[in-house]
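Morning F.,

Quick status update on the modeling queue. The single chain you submitted on Monday has been processed. Sequence for confirmation:
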Amino acid sequence: MRLTKTLGAVAGALLLVGLSTGVAVAQDEETMTFTASGSGEEEIPAGSGQAGATVAGTFTLSADDTLTYTVSIEGNDEPVTAGHIHQGAAGVNGDVVVMLDAAAITAGSEATAEVPAEVADALRADPSGFYLNTHSASFAPPTGVARAQLSADGATAPSSVPTGTGGQAADGVDTTALAGLGVAAAVAAGAVVLVRRRRAS
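C-alpha cells below.
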C-alpha cells in the first residue's frame, strides 16, 4: 500500500509538471519583442523630419496584449510632445494605433501601454508593418521629429510552425507541451504496471 501511494504521488507530480510546462511554453510563444531604430531622415515626406535627430526603442508585447517599452530620442531641439506607434509600411504614413508616454520618451524610461487585440495580432504577424514616430511642436503629425520602423527581435509569431524542433503545430497545439504530457503519462502507466507485478508476485 505504501509503495502504491508513493508511485501514485510521483506520477501525479510528473503529470502536473507536464501540464505546467505546456502552459509556460504557450505563454512564452505569445510574448514577442520588437526593436526600432531610425532618424529624422526616415520621416515621410522626405525632408520633413528633424535633421540629426535619432530615435530608438525596444518593445515587449505580452500574452495579455500589454506593451512594455523604452524609447529614447536624441538630437531634438524641442521637447517631445507625443509618441505613437503607427500602422504603416516603410515609406508610408499610417494611422496611430498605440499612444506612447511623451514624458517617458523624454526621460528614456520604461512605460507600458494597452494594445487593442486586433492591433496586437497584427503586430505579432507582421511587425514591419508598423513604425514608431515622435513629435514636437514644430514636427506635429503627420510628420515627426524622428521615425523608426519596427522589426521582430529574434521572435517567432505564434502562428508559425517550426519543423523538427517542436513548437506550435498548425492547429495551435503546442507539441512541446504534448511531449511533456506524454512523458508524464508514460511514467504514470509504468508505475501502475510495477504495482500490479508486485502484487502478482
